[in-house]
Design brief:
- By secondary structure, the protein is mainly alpha-helical.
- It has 13 helices and 2 strands.
- It has helices at residues 23-50, 57-84, 93-126, 131-134, 137-155, 157-163, 180-184, 192-225, 230-238, 241-263, 269-280, 282-294, 296-318, and strands at residues 10-12, 90-92.
- The chain has a two-stranded antiparallel ribbon.
- Helix 12 (282-294) crosses helix 13.
- It starts with 9 loop residues before the first strand and ends with a helix.
């Protein structure tokens, strides 16, 4: 009985199955992705903070998105590096539950920020004359606080409930970081309460957010189609392009991963790991690129910064 219900002091993570021999080489592109995420999101925050013309609701929400992307990258980084760079797969239970809390908290925060950005686009397109009076700075700050409280509050019970469970001798997780459903499956006890709570959190956050984002774009399309000028319609839709890309980057891999976990018993372990990487690693890297390319004000500010630094370097070299 003690063998089967051994709680243990650690779990074991999984990298990409079958590629163990090249983990050291895989650590190079993975490190590059984390550096790109840190640099890109930090640059977005710096540009928005330093440029007075960007002190507008849309860019405040973009700053929130960059903060959540940085948090999500920082949450997955420790175990990813230990697996691929150091070859260590063991993680202490307390460290695993802490990572689990932060990963899920920042995921919900990202979903919430994407929803507020959709609301921002609805107001900007449907009611542009009242845009500044609806999305005031105090209201934006209140939305940010509500996002934080919602994300943290809903996930505090999860690690506490998991901590109380006994775990079987087989403590091998199926991902490179700790996730709530993954840890829960290893318990040697009734996990129906944990499963029900996890489902409630997912449906009340990611599920509700996704539905509201779809409804927001329905309102946007309804408004855009009522605009007589084709050029104005395209201009209005273009302001949503960056946000739509961010939504697709976040939700598409998540939906695929959820489907595989629930119905894809045929799916290979490698496909699950790769989908989880797409969900947790790719958005923090690509979101800054998408917004830099598609947002004229940010692009011009970064080009100005680049040319100013280049001119300054030439001037110093000439002296």
């Amino acid at each position: 009985m003690s063998d089967s219900n051994n709680t243990g002091t650690s779990f074991f993570l999984t990298g990409l199955p079958g590629l163990e021999a090249v983990y050291t080489w895989l650590s190079i592109p993975l490190c590059a992705m984390y550096v790109a995420s840190l640099a890109g999101n930090s640059l977005i925050l710096w540009v928005v903070r330093s440029e007075p013309s960007l002190h507008q609701p849309m860019y405040y929400f973009l700053s929130m998105l960059s903060v959540t992307d940085l948090g999500l990258s920082a949450s997955t980084l420790p175990t990813m590096l230990t697996i691929y760079a150091l070859g260590l797969r063991e993680v202490a239970v307390d460290a695993c539950l802490t990572q689990l809390f932060f990963i899920h908290t920042f995921s919900i925060m990202e979903s919430s920020v994407l929803l507020t950005m959709a609301f921002d686009r609805v107001v900007a397109i449907s009611n542009p004359l009242r845009y500044g009076t609806i999305l005031t700075s105090p209201r934006i700050a209140s939305l940010g606080l509500a996002i934080l409280l919602r994300s943290v509050g809903l996930h505090i019970p999860a690690p506490i409930m998991l901590k109380k469970l006994p775990y079987c001798r087989n403590r091998l997780l199926s991902h490179s970081y700790c996730l709530h459903p993954d840890v829960m499956k290893l318990a040697c006890a009734d996990t129906r309460i944990n499963s029900a709570y996890g489902l409630f959190v997912v449906l009340s956050t990611l599920g509700v957010d996704a539905v509201l984002i779809v409804l927001s774009y329905g309102l946007i399309l309804h408004t855009v189609l009522s605009i007589a000028s084709k050029a104005e319609r395209l201009k209005a839709l273009n302001t949503c392009a960056s946000h739509l890309c961010a939504v697709l980057l976040f939700y598409t891999p998540m939906m695929g991963l959820s489907m595989i976990h629930r119905f894809g018993r045929w799916a290979s372990p490698r496909s699950r790991v790769l989908l989880s990487y797409l969900h947790f690693l790719i958005p923090p890297v690509l979101n800054p690129m998408v917004y830099t390319i598609k947002t004229k004000q940010i692009r011009l500010r970064m080009l100005h910064l680049f040319w100013w630094n280049r001119s300054s370097t030439r001037h110093k070299g000439g002296n």
